[in-house]
Design brief:
Elements lengths: L1 H9 L2 E3 L2 E9 L2 E8 L2 E9 L3 H17 L10 E3 L1 E7 L5 E10 L16 E6 L2 E8 L5 H15 L10 E5 L11 E6 L2
Parallel strand pairs: 1-5
Antiparallel strand pairs: 2-3, 3-9, 4-7, 4-8, 6-7, 6-10, 9-11, 10-11
Helix pairs in contact: 1-2
């Protein structure tokens, strides 16, 4: 636990590498199209719980993993964002199923430590192109759903993206009260 706290408070945060392909603004919503690098990710699935509760549970498991609860007992440092895959229902609300993931820091990409928690899986992911919009505050399910609807509206029918899931991303530790960064990502098809 101490490793997890030290890791989240004192370590530098490595950003998930991406490059901006284009920027847009429509209906008072700014958004970007980005190419995000692939790599290895630590991921945990949580289901049967409301989005906010499931997300918190998944995030805590991943923080313990990168904080040293792994086969090498090594604190790896933090990456951002913490990415939560959300699965929208027909009415736009979110199903009670999430996948919380964190890109493994560059130094450990080639040979990541094995998680002590068997519910955490190491996944190899390809790069992807996404549409992203950003907002502040302490994000909850209602905020992600709201910004996903705004991004959908701003992109209109000309943009092709995956409709059965989207990413809800948080960049900041909970102790940061101001200047928080959250994003919704749609994966371009």
């Amino acid at each position: 636990m101490l490793g997890m706290i030290k890791n989240s408070l004192l370590s530098t945060v490595e950003a998930w590498p991406y490059r901006v392909l284009s920027k847009g603004e429509k209906e008072q919503l700014s958004y970007e199209e980005r190419a995000c690098e692939g790599g290895r990710f630590a991921a945990v699935e949580v289901s049967g719980k409301p989005f906010d509760e499931a997300s918190k549970e998944g995030v805590l498991k991943l923080l313990k993993y990168v904080g040293g609860t792994n086969d090498k007992g090594v604190g790896m440092g933090m990456t951002a964002p913490v990415s939560i895959t959300a699965f929208p229902a027909e009415d736009g609300s979110l199903q009670q199923k999430v996948k919380v993931s964190l890109r493994i820091p560059s130094q450990f990409q080639a040979n990541p430590p094995c998680p002590s928690d068997k519910s955490i899986k190491i996944e190899e992911r390809q790069g992807m192109t996404i549409y992203s919009t950003q907002f502040g505050g302490y994000a909850k399910e209602v905020d992600y759903v709201n910004y996903a609807a705004k991004l959908k509206s701003a992109l209109g029918s000309e943009a092709a993206y995956c409709k059965d899931f989207y990413f809800c991303n948080g960049y900041d530790p909970p102790m940061k009260p101001y200047g928080r960064r959250n994003e919704v990502w749609f994966v371009k098809e």
